[in-house]
Specification:
Strand order of the largest sheet: 1-4-2-3
Distance between the termini: 36 Å
Number of strands: 4
Number of helices: 3
Helix content: 25-40%
Amino acid sequence: MAERTATIASNAGLHARPAAVFAEAASHYEHLDITIAVEGEPQHDVVDAASMLSLMSLGAGHGERVVLRADGHGAEEALDQLAQILGTDHDTK
């Protein structure tokens, strides 16, 4: 299983706009089961990375670290791209 840790760069955290951008990108990897959780939280608190509502329910704020996990062909590349999205401030214009 591939795993990446990323830091939320958007000033308001993983709220509507950044969550929508991230969920859309994660949904392009239909063949992978991609999960996300706030770093340090119990394993059962992981959510589907392609679900905007689930992402917002994490309550991940600016500067918080999250853990992405995926298994399957292309998982490493997918997580690299998704971590890059989280590391971008989507609140700037």
